[in-house]
Automatic annotation (TrEMBL):
Keywords: Membrane, Transmembrane, Transmembrane helix. The keyword Membrane applies. It comes from the Eukaryota. The chain crosses the membrane at residues 316-335. This is Uncharacterized protein.
Length: 353
């Protein structure tokens, strides 16, 4: 059975073995609370997409000769996370880490400590926290400059929802596959929970979706997030990636293989009729309203979109009946032209040989 000695491996190693992954998962989220000395490898098997994110974040934060990072091992990350979970404020945490990692240049030490704290926060929450020295980030990010990380996250999500929702209906046709094939949307699969359901570009109709189901499931009882946020996020996945829709599951399987997403995202419990009401959503309600309105206003532009778009059944039948009539008219007209040409050909007197 693997020991927590695995956590002493470098965060900059390009490959993390399964035993080390298990130790990281167990240490960050307490999945192996029954054992303080060993980690269970099988707990890492469902977190492939998370560890793609983990390694990307470590690599980005350690860029440029690691001048902006004090952490060197997975144990260093876990130690910072354990402090964060005590609701320690940012300044006190900085002092603790400066005492642990002394540095001859105080200015360099501050930058490295700040980078290490922000990295640990990102790995714990899958939310962009802090200002990355390297790496492009255009989405929402949280700046943690004081107080506890928990208070920052809670204040960020506990904001009043303001959009009018009286006529918003979340029909079964409203799912991620149909956003693409009917609405003409582009989906950016994000690892930043703060960007979930955010419209990234109005003109291109680009929307961000956070689909890391495995991460969300293990956070259901986490005090770091406001009560109900994780459950509601899972319900948005049930809305957009319904388990009962076979075609959506097939579509997502192809997408997840292409972009290395969490393959379990279509395993959310199916929504009941009452759960599809917009008022059942609080944290993500405004973003759902905007997305649904854009979807409803989207007009089909291609034959495939016209064929797939059944939002207005009368319009759909009218379009295709008119199309069939047009095609038949053209076909019969062409046949008549050919018959007329043949008749003229045979009626024309032949010259003697």
């Amino acid at each position: 059975m693997p020991s927590t000695e695995n956590l002493k491996a470098s965060v900059f190693d390009p490959i993390i073995d399964e035993e080390t992954k298990a130790c990281i998962v167990n240490s960050l989220w307490g999945l192996d609370s029954g054992s303080s000395h060993h980690c269970v490898p099988k707990t890492a098997s469902n977190y492939g997409s998370y560890f793609n994110y983990y390694m990307e974040q470590c690599d980005t934060a350690g860029h440029d000769n690691r001048r902006y990072l004090s952490v060197r091992t997975h144990q260093d990350v876990v130690d910072i996370v354990n402090h964060i979970k005590t609701n320690i404020n940012r300044d006190d945490l900085s002092q603790v880490l400066k005492a642990k990692w002394p540095h001859p240049d105080p200015r360099s030490a501050s930058a490295q400590i700040d980078g290490s704290i922000d990295l640990a926060a990102r790995l714990l929450l899958m939310i962009d926290v802090g200002d990355l020295k390297h790496g492009f980030r255009s989405g929402n990010r949280l700046i943690w400059d004081g107080g506890s990380l928990k208070s920052l996250v809670h204040s960020h999500y506990n904001t009043a929802q303001s959009l009018h929702t009286e006529h918003v209906r979340l029909e079964k046709i409203f799912n991620a596959r149909n956003l693409v094939r009917i609405g003409g949307f582009k989906i950016e699969w994000t690892n930043n929970l703060a960007d979930h359901l955010r419209i990234l570009n109005d003109d291109e109709k680009k929307v961000a979706i956070f689909s890391n189901f495995s991460f969300l499931k293990v956070q259901e009882n986490s005090p770091m997030f406001p009560d109900g946020l994780i459950d509601e996020t899972l319900r948005t996945l049930a809305l957009l990636l319904p388990r009962s829709d076979v075609e959506t599951r097939k579509w997502y399987r192809k997408v997840s293989n292409k972009f290395l997403l969490d393959p379990q995202a279509t395993q959310c419990n199916s929504l009941r009729l009452m759960d599809r009401h917009i008022d059942r959503f609080h944290f993500w309600r405004d973003r759902i309203v905007v997305l649904k309105e854009m979807f409803d206003e989207a007009e089909p532009r291609t034959l495939l979109q016209w064929w797939s778009d059944r939002r207005n059944v009368v319009q759909w039948y009218t379009f295709w009946v008119a199309g069939i009539v047009l095609v038949l008219t053209f076909v019969f007209g062409l046949i008549q032209c050919i018959e007329g040409g043949i008749q003229v050909y045979f009626a024309f007197p032949k010259s003697p040989a």
